From TrEMBL:
<comment type="similarity">
    <text>Belongs to the nitroreductase family.</text>
</comment>
<keyword id="KW-0285">Flavoprotein</keyword>
<keyword id="KW-0521">NADP</keyword>
<dbReference type="InterPro" id="IPR029479">
    <property type="entry name" value="Nitroreductase"/>
</dbReference>
<dbReference type="InterPro" id="IPR052530">
    <property type="entry name" value="NAD(P)H_nitroreductase"/>
</dbReference>
<keyword id="KW-0288">FMN</keyword>
<dbReference type="InterPro" id="IPR026021">
    <property type="entry name" value="YdjA-like"/>
</dbReference>
<keyword id="KW-0560">Oxidoreductase</keyword>
<protein>
    <recommendedName>
        <fullName>Putative NAD(P)H nitroreductase</fullName>
        <ecNumber>1.-.-.-</ecNumber>
    </recommendedName>
</protein>
<feature type="binding site" description="in other chain">
    <location>
        <begin position="136"/>
        <end position="138"/>
    </location>
    <ligand>
        <name>FMN</name>
    </ligand>
</feature>
<feature type="binding site" description="in other chain">
    <location>
        <begin position="10"/>
        <end position="12"/>
    </location>
    <ligand>
        <name>FMN</name>
    </ligand>
</feature>
<feature type="domain" description="Nitroreductase">
    <location>
        <begin position="7"/>
        <end position="168"/>
    </location>
</feature>
<keyword id="KW-0520">NAD</keyword>
<dbReference type="InterPro" id="IPR000415">
    <property type="entry name" value="Nitroreductase-like"/>
</dbReference>
<feature type="binding site">
    <location>
        <position position="39"/>
    </location>
    <ligand>
        <name>FMN</name>
    </ligand>
</feature>
<dbReference type="GO" id="GO:0016491">
    <property type="term" value="F:oxidoreductase activity"/>
</dbReference>
<dbReference type="Pfam" id="PF00881">
    <property type="entry name" value="Nitroreductase"/>
</dbReference>
Amino acid sequence: MDVNVAIRARRSISKFMPEPVPPEALTRLLAAGIWAPNHHLTEPWRFIILGPQTRHGLAGRYAELRMEKAPAEAAERRARIREESERKFLAIPTIVAVAAHQEGDEQRRREDYAAVCCAIQNVQLAAWAEGVGVKWSTAPIIRDPLAYELLGVASASFELIALLYMGYPAEIPTRERKRPLDEVIRTTP
């Protein structure tokens, strides 16, 4: 698939077929990430493929965080939110956590964060070209200390950037994309 076609056609996928992305395909997709540009060649990206035990632990914590948003007096509703949230999380066929190695001064940390975001976009485009859908999630779970613990990520040295929900699309959203270009471009004198 031509890169320009992939850029314009790619959509965030929320509904997946049940089968996970095969390990060899997942390796190819993540390999696209390491070709992202980064200043000083720091290669700050880290990809963590979630195994079953970690998925269950994170699913429980994800559900708790979602449930905590509901009013305390709505006990039945909170229980339903927890159950639905855990089921939804566990239904995602493949999940990859993405972290940025963070060291140096604030400028270097910003550059490395940006580089990891570029790596994520590379993964998304490579995935789309192979018929794999991705949703880049920045849900509160990625800021939760328990997530760092379950993923084996040292929060003193790494920042979780995303959970990539991956799988074969069961549904591809359609929508008109973006503002007209002339609304977001200007030329200086």
